[in-house]
Amino acid sequence: MKKILIVISILLSLNLVLSAQEKDAFLQTMPESSVLKTTLTVRCVRDLNYWKQPALKNFWSWMPKLQFAVSGPIADASYFTYEFFTPDGKPWFTADSEPFAIGQGEYKLFESEAVPRWTDKRSSIQTGIFSFKITLKNSLQTTSKVLYQGKFTVKKEFAGTPLPDFKNQYLFYVGQDWTLPMAYLNFDFRQDSNAPIFQTSMWFRGDVNSKLKGYLFYNGKQIANTENGGVGQTNYVLIEGDSDSKYRWELNRFTFYNARYYDQKGDNKNLHAFNRNPGNYEIKILLDGELVRTVFFTVGADGKIVDNGVAKNNGLNGFGIVVPAKVIPTKEGAVNLSAYKTEAFYGNILAGF
User: What is the CATH number for 114?
Assistant: First the structure.
């Protein structure tokens, strides 16, 4: 039998801890009282048994799990109702969150409960296109508002052996390949508000964290990399698979310390300030020495990255600019490069991307 990995999910994505200066800019653009799309994930959580077959050992089933962040303001005594629907559109099950409140300009992380006990009667072995709804309710104000609706495709793969005790071990998973062609560009004010640092975040498939290197070019000339004056780190990991990392997706952030939005002090002549260097930029990412991503963007005369409008027009404000990443998946296996057209943000595709 294949060695099965426990699902790991670490929600640390996209700089949700802000300095006062960055927070002011963030508040001007972040959608209020909304599910922040870039933080939303849907995945299958394994139940080690199946309640309809209690006499059979190792009969794997699954339940859905939502994780996301929500922006304020949201009034006191509010709560979420999570609703899940089967592929035929019929109600599957619902669950409520604990009551909460979120202040103006603040945010809070949430996750729905999944498999609270083995052999849960809500677990399923069904595959197909499921849907969900996140509704914000308030008992004091007697209000109810749908904040997010989406759909997700569940597939399965045999992960056991022909032996009777392991023949019902199927891995159920939600494909996340729709994330791969998207690159998030932003500046980090936290470490240096006098010279905000340029960063980019991208998703990759497989166990790639320690094998990635990022390079930044300006008008065709390399100006920074993550080996000298930079760093790459994993911010979010989704594992739904076995030891070969076939169903593992990682959000990695690349920080280029030599590249800055501006440089107010001007005491480091080695810094490349965008506001002094408008023009064409390119990011290249190598995996084990082989090119796997390229990203192109333009910086205007004001030092700002020229916005293509995708983030603004799709409610992704507050998390930088979203641009296409060219995916060269030779190191990541058989990926679905067209998944973003129908599956982006779980059925909420990006207009204009």
Answer: 2.60.40.10
Calpha distance 307→297 (Å, rounded): 9
Q: How confident is the model at residue 22 (pLDDT cuts 50, 70, 90)?
A: very low
Domain of 259 in residue numbering reads as 178-343
> Is there a domain that residue 185 lies in?
yes
Residues 50 and 168 occupy one common structural domain? yes
**40 is a domain residue:** yes
Please classify residue 351 by burial: count the beta carbons closer than 10 Å to its beta carbon, then call 0-12 exposed, 13-18 middle and 19+ buried. Answer: exposed
Q: Residue holding tokens 């699902």?
A: 7
- With 0.85 as the threshold, say if the pTM is over it: yes
Say how far apart CA 324 and CA 296 lie, in whole Å.
8
Is residue 92 classed exposed, middle or buried when 0-12, 13-18 and 19+ CB atoms within 10 A define those classes? middle
Instruction: List, for residues 132-165, the tens digit of each pLDDT value.
Output: 999 999 999 999 999 999 999 999 999 888 898 8
Domain shared by 36 and 148, yes or no: yes
Q: Of 314, 305, 296, 318, nearest to 353 (Cα)?
A: 314
DSSP 58: T
pLDDT per position as a tens digit, 277-290: 999 999 999 999 99
Which pLDDT belongs to residue 234?
59
Q: Residue 12: pLDDT band by 50, 70, 90 thresholds?
A: very low
pLDDT value of residue 2: 37
216 and 331 in a single domain? The answer is: yes
User: Scanning the structure block, which residue is given the tokens 């169903």?
Assistant: 247
Are 50 and 119 part of one and the same domain? yes
Domain boundary among 174, 200, 228: 174
